[in-house]
What does this fold into?
Amino acid sequence: MSEKIRVLIDEQAVDQKIAELGAQISKDYAGKEVHLICVLKGGVFFMCELAKRITVPVSMDFMSVSSYGNDTKSSGVVKIVKDLDEPIEGKDVLVVEDIIDSGRTLSYLLEILKNRKPASLHLCTLLDKPERRVKPVEVDYTAFNIPDEFVVGYGLDYAQRYRNLPYIGVVELDED
Ligand code: IMP
Ligand code: MG
It folds into this structure.
């Protein structure tokens, strides 16, 4: 059995959308500094591209939360694998995620971050699967809403592979 990737959102469409989000965020944060928090590892590619399109001062930090392992279904178990390096108190924080699925990871993470007293706390995601939501999450910036399909690329993996694809695709299994 081999795997094939069907393109769902091509590279040009992703780049275009990130440029739009970057412009919107630059406008919304005018006169401020935005502190981007990347949720590893999936958010890395999106955060880097987004950061390049933001024109207000940007600082960045990274955090890792586990929820999935190598499976394609949420375990419901969420734990902090790597915490932030810097305190976020008083900062205008924008969390950058690859995808919001059940919302379990994000609702847990946002609660933790809120307790650390940032000046503001917002959420930006590359992808959202609204039909899959179990826990409500307020999303401020979404690049794309997608149907309930397992996607890879632009930071998203299937068993740690395909993160480096410059587009977003769906894994399809071939019977040969
Ligand atoms: P949630 O807690 O169910 O919202 O899960 C969010 C996390 O699950 C994301 O940050 C991804 O790491 C992973 N995930 C959810 N859906 C997909 C997918 O379609 N492809 C790859 N990873 C996914
Ligand atoms: Mg993730």
Observations:
- Residues 21 and 164 are 21 Å apart (CA to CA).
- The pocket of magnesium ion (ligand 2) is lined by residues 39, 42, 97-98 (CB under 6 Å).
- The longest helix spans residues 11-28.
- The two ends are 5 Å apart (CA to CA).
